[in-house]
Amino acid sequence: MANVRPLYIPPPSQEPAESGALILRDGTTALIRVARPDDRSALQAFVDRLSPEAKRHRFFSETTPPAEVIESLCDSSDPRSKLTLIVTRVWQGAPRIIAAGSYFAKDNTTAEVAMAVDEAFHGKGLGTLLLERLALLGGLVPGGWPALMARNRTLALDARRLLCAAAGTEPACPDEMLGSLASVILPDSPTIETGWRQRDPLQARLFDGWGIEVPIMRWPAAPRRLIRVSAQLYNSPEQYARLAEALRKELAAETLSPAEGERAG
Question: What is the rounded distance in angstroms from the CA atom of residue 104 to the CA atom of residue 6?
C-alpha cells in the first residue's frame, strides 16, 4: 500500500478590505479593488451594460450618466469623503467590471452607499460583499474585520438560540463551530415530498404569510429538515426575533388538524 502524504493547506488569511479575491456564492471567484482614473472606459462599459431599471436604482435615471460622473467615481484620492470599489473577473473572454459600489460620506458616522451588479451576476452575493467592504473602508465599523466578524458571529449565535427555542430542538453543534452561519434542526415535516427540488411548504408559508425568505432544507433526508440563517452587516436582532415568532406559529399550525387550523386562522 502506497504511503500518502497529506497536502499542507495553510490557514486562510484575511485580505485587506480594499483589495483581494472574493468567493461568490456559486464558488467562483472575482477580484475587488479601489477604482482608479484609468478605469474610466471599463466602468463606462459596465454602466452601459446595465438595464434601464438598474440605472434608475443606481443613478436615479434610466439614461446613462454623463462622462464627468464616471470620471468622479474613478477618483478615490480622498477616501474619507468618497470612494468606489470595483469587482472584476474574466468574462466572455476578457476582463470586465461586473459590480461597483461607492460611498459618499455625510459626516464622521454616516454615509450614503450606492451599488450596481451586472445582471449576469445577480444572486451571487456581490451586493453583500461590497457593502461590508465599503462600511469597513468608510470607518463605519470601528475595529475593522475582527470587529465585524465578532459582531456577525454573536448575531448568528443569538439567532440560533431564538430559533432553537421556537422549534423546540437542541443546537446541532457546539457554539465553537459557528461563524456567521447557523443551521437549526426542525421537527420532521408532515408532508411526503421527498425531492430535493421540492420546496418545503413551511418555506413557502414564511414567505407568503410573513414576507420572510429563508432556506429550509431536507437533511439528511425527508422528513428530516433544517432551517439556515446567516448574519451580515445589514441584519439586526429584531429580524431574527420576528423569524422566531413566525416559525413558532407556523410549526404549531402544522400539528393541527384541518378543522383546528381553520379555527386557529
Answer: 48
